[in-house]
Every structure is written in structure tokens, then in C-alpha cells.
Amino acid sequence: MRVVLRFDTGYQADAEELASSLHIALLRGDQPAPAATDFELQLGSAGLSLRQLSIEQAQGSAKQRKKRQDNSTADIRCDFIAGELRHRRLFGGGKNQMILKATGLNKHKPSVMDLTAGLGRDSYVLATAGARVTMFERQPIVAALLADGLRRLRCGGDEQELAIAQRLFLHRGDSLDCAAALAEQEAPDVIYLDPMFPERGKTAKVKKAMAFFHHLVGSDDDAAGLLPLALATARYRVVVKRPRHAPPLGDVQPGLCFEGKSTRFDIYPLKKMPG
Ligand SMILES: C[S@@+](CC[C@H](N)C(=O)[O-])C[C@H]1O[C@@H](n2cnc3c(N)ncnc32)[C@H](O)[C@@H]1O
Asked: pTM of the full predicted structure?
């Protein structure tokens, strides 16, 4: 998979640092991307975003690229402040959200480890409800997008958003390698898992964005290995998010399920939560 980083004027130093950490090529302003480029990261005043390129897009003129950008629905970025997540924070059903019931956050404020953070959407919802969330993300580009979203939340958010940002911690790397060592210092109350699963999403726009994400991340074929780790590490429960009709992770039956229209939360209780 070939990825390049394009930066706007004024972002050269940050772009150089990022490109060197991701081992990818840098492109300035309107420089065409090399043929066979799959993805283009873009760094500018709006932060970091990712676009999937077709061959013509990679090679087209700056004007053609701009036109396609304007029509694109598939750019990926991590936005905790302005988009859907803000709306969900303000109007999204509060404690009744299924993810909060599943993690016990409707009654408690446990510490959570999210071993498959992705773009941090679920972690953000948990942190909004008061949890302290340690996130793990192993795909370096996804981790860079998540780090950028967190940086903008810390720098551009209001007081409440700043408090949420202070409850979110990111570890770049494979949770299979480092979660247990970290938990030796302080075991998390809850471990949350949401590995990739094929055919998720409903609307055409969601499907397109998910297909794009799948191309980047792959299908997390080793996901079943996360469950024994999580069960050995969490204090009170492990929660796994699955598509509604999918088999349970690793075919291990949960103790309890919460089912929504398209999603299911499988709960593996270990001990009763105090209080
Ligand atoms: C479906 S996405 C998670 C979406 C996330 N719940 C959200 O709300 O944005 C799954 C993510 O888990 C990551 N992942 C899978 N296995 C992992 C592991 N062992 N360690 C760290 N990250 C992992 C993948 O790279 C992918 O970005």
C-alpha cells in the first residue's frame, strides 16, 4: 500500500516530522502524486485527513484534484469537535446509549481500555460519559489521524471538551503486545473491543467510508486473540461490539447481549461492578 503526505504552506516542519515517522513521501502543494499511490494524507489548517486515490486523481492537475475533493464523501479524518460526535454528545441520548449500558457507564465511571481504538469514536463517547479511556491503535496512519483529532480537541475545544480530551490516552502499537504490561500498573475496570468486521454500515456513504477504512486497515484476522487477553486483564467486564448478526468473537458465548438495529454489544462479566 502506497501512501504520500501532501502539506499546505506553513505546515512543512510538522509534515516532515510526520512523513519521517510514517516512512512515507512528502508532496508539496499541487505536486502530482506518483502513479500507483493508494492513499494521500493531507496536512493543513483543518488538520490531517486521508483520501483514497484513483490513478487519475493521483496524476491529475491541481484544479482537477480540487474539484474531486469538493465532490468527495470518502475523506477520513478524526473530528471530535464539529461533526457527528459533537451532535451525539449534545443530543445523543445521554446515559441511555447502548454502549454506556454495555460498559456499565450509565451507573459508574470505570476506567476503560479500548484495545481497538480506530478513529476513537467509541472511546470518545465513553470519555464523554466520564470514563478514563486508554486507547490502542496499531495501524500507524489511523493512529496519526486519531492523534491529530485529539490534538485539535485539546487545543480547539471548549472547557467540557478539554476535560474529555484529558480523559483520553493514546498508545500507538499492537494491544496484543502491550496491553497486559500496561495493565500490570493498573488493571482497567472494563476492556472494550471493536475489531474490523466485513459488511458493516448501512447508508451508501457509510459503506463507502467503511470500504475505504477496510482497504487501509485490513480485516483484523487475529482479533479472536484479543478476547483471552481482555478476559485475563479486565477487572469487571469485557465488552465486544459486533455487527448484529455476526457470531461472537472467537465463538465464545457472552454472558449477556445488548442488541440494536445493526450492532450488538456482547458482554463478558467477570465480577460485579461495585456500587
Ligand atoms: C472497527 S475499527 C474500531 C473503530 C472504533 N471503535 C471507533 O469507534 O472509531 C478497528 C480498529 O482496531 C485496530 N486494531 C485491531 N486489532 C488491534 C490490535 N491488536 N492492537 C491495536 N489496534 C488494533 C485496527 O487497526 C482498526 O483501526
From this structure: 0.90
For β-strands 263-269 and 237-243, DSSP reports them as: antiparallel
Collapsing DSSP to helix, strand or coil, 65 comes out as helix
Pick the CATH number of 84-269 from 3.40.50.2000, 3.40.50.150, 3.20.20.60, 3.30.70.380: 3.40.50.150
φ, ψ (nearest 5 deg) of residue 41: -85, 145
CA–CA distance, 53 with 59 (Å, rounded to integer): 9
Q: Which of 54-58, 160-164, 190-194, 243-247 has the lowest mean pLDDT?
A: 54-58
* Pocket, ligand 1, Cβ cutoff 6 A: 115-116, 118-122, 136-139, 142, 174-176, 194-196, 217, 220, 226
* Rounded Cα–Cα distance for residues 52 and 57 (Å): 9
Measured between alpha carbons, how far is residue 79 from residues 18, 49, 76, 117 in Å?
19, 10, 9, 14
Whole-Å CA distances, 273 to 144, 166, 211, 218: 34, 24, 38, 35
